[in-house]
Amino acid sequence: MPTKDLNALFLDTLKDIYYAEKQIYKSLPKMAKAAASEQLRAAFEKHHGETEGQIERLEQVFELVGKPARGKKCDAIEGILDEGKEIMEEYEGEPALDAGLLAAAQAVEHYEISRYGTLKSWATKLGMKDAANLLDQTLTEEKKTDDALTKIADTAINADAG
């Protein structure tokens, strides 16, 4: 039986975020379409393109560790994305829709920030410098996206929802 060490945990978590990114990639166009705000729609469309690059980076990390790029079902991201779908259905055409979409998107970003921060830390501990650098690039993008969503919420969306 293989040892359940930090290498195994790193690989399991890498599979988890790979699955999550692919699900997020599929969800972002639906969120963009549902958004009433042009600014929010543009943010979702921009992040859709970034997510494609993040998936490619994850594939590079899999290559660096000599494993096939395969996802493992992530119940956490499934739940977060399901909440987003519920908001789209329950608040369709309502003033609070964009605020709900923004909140759902930030829940996704916070999940990703947590995962990428952990993976970067573990990669560094395991001496995987190149993997840590790739993960750090994505971590930086996720933090920028979260900041951008916060600005959109604070300057427009939340006020319009009231």
Question: How would you characterize the overall build of this protein?
Answer:
There is one protein chain. With 162 residues, this protein is mainly alpha-helical. The mean pLDDT is 93. The chain has 5 helices and no strands. Helices cover 83% and strands 0% of the residues.
Write down the overall geometry: elongated
- Estimate what percentage of residues fall within beta strands: under 5%
| Helix/strand structural class | mainly alpha
Individual helix count: 5
How much helix, percentage-wise, in residues? over 70%
Q: How far do the termini sit from each other?
A: 57 Å
Rg: 17 Å
- Uncertain spans, ≥5 residues at pLDDT below 50? none
Q: What's the β-strand tally?
A: 0
Mean pLDDT: 93
Report the biggest beta sheet as strand number plus sense, adding barrel if it closes: none
- Element pattern in H and E: HHHHH
List the helices and strands and how they pair.
Elements (H helix, E strand, L loop, with lengths): L5 H29 L3 H27 L10 H16 L6 H29 L3 H33 L1
Outline:
The protein is mainly α and 162 residues long. It is built from five helices and no strands. The longest helix has 33 residues.
Which short descriptors sum up this protein?
single chain
